[in-house]
């Protein structure tokens, strides 16, 4: 989790000049970074498929401009972020749309690049059609012309726009997206904050937003979508806040960053140039090669090199400084195709407030009988239920030294068997992150542990 200054304009500016999880569709887990987002208009003129829950039969994605290049005017979106690094792509964002649940849930994805590096992943917006016929939008993405066209093709009005977290990468697009649908109500997670300046939502172009509350039965969508809020004590410079949602009719759990599943293959929205750039043996590979000799050879465009680039991207996103970028296969295999808590979130956040997190996940598993999970990054939808979800959090048992009776009894055995696999991260890859945690604790930027149970 990373924090950054918020420098954002309230308006867009136009310039005239299994756990069998095999879906090949994470995230740099953004913290309270804030950014400056502008939408530019260049001088030039301006098949929905089912996704099977098992990736082997996943449908293809739809774009508004199937034949357009990455530089298509419909994908143009200029985004500048602040300290300590920007989030790209800076000029063009391709949008893909897939149908996760027939006639009910659609996933919209764009690429999200980390600074000026070649490291990127996907960021996901989920759209649910309500019984009213209107659309409920979870975690908006950049409102490019292509993105808005794909939303409008659903043939229903956007009624609600929901920001389920405090994190920059999701907050920055809410204002611009809501201006495309001015009649929609905007709802946001509680306790919004930014660092080093704690700026109000209006600074990000978010006006008149309503606050999401824990288990609130008065929301306009309460009959169809339930919600539970994780609002931790401050773990350092600010609290971790995330709202989970449950769509009852489709038995779908929506989360933002709480859990992820790394797909074996890169998401469709990832630019192949980024994949090939990550496959090159650059400075990062030379520094993180376990002392092995790094060959200096050209990278040709083929599936092998694209896959190598994806594996290197994933390890850098999950661990910041993995042990061996030269040969990423082993670590990638241990981290992919299973439901996990991101190592960054686990180390810097959830391990600080284990009681609060335990209460939240136990409430989710106790009250919601979900059969699929849709996170905001990496693979989605994921075929997973309560047992797989709890297994990803078994590291809390070691921190709390107890097991809770609120867990579903039939899934307890499975949770115990799968928990160690879901919570195991290669020790060598964790060294950089662990050292960072120790440093942040030593300087007071992050607390060692915080009590957080709601009494």
Key terms for this structure?
disordered N terminus; alpha+beta; 455 residues; 5-stranded mixed sheet; 13 helices
Short description, anyone?
The chain has 455 residues and is of the alpha+beta class. Helices cover 26% and strands 18% of the residues.
Describe this protein's structure.
The longest helix has 17 residues, at 303-319. This protein has 13 helices and 17 strands. Helices cover 26% and strands 18% of the residues. The chain has 455 residues and is of the alpha+beta class. Helix 6 (303-319) crosses helix 7 (329-335). Strands 3, 4, 5, 6, 7, 8, 9 and 10 form an 8-stranded mixed β-sheet that branches. It has a 5-stranded mixed β-sheet with strand order 11-12-13-16-17, with helices on one face. The two termini are 28 Å apart. The protein has helices at residues 145-152, 168-171, 174-180, 272-279, 283-287, 303-319, 329-335, 343-350, 354-367, 386-391, 395-400, 412-423, 427-442; strands at 35-38, 78-81, 87-88, 96-101, 105-114, 120-129, 135-138, 158-163, 185-188, 210-211, 225-234, 239-247, 252-254, 260-261, 339-340, 372-374, 382-383.
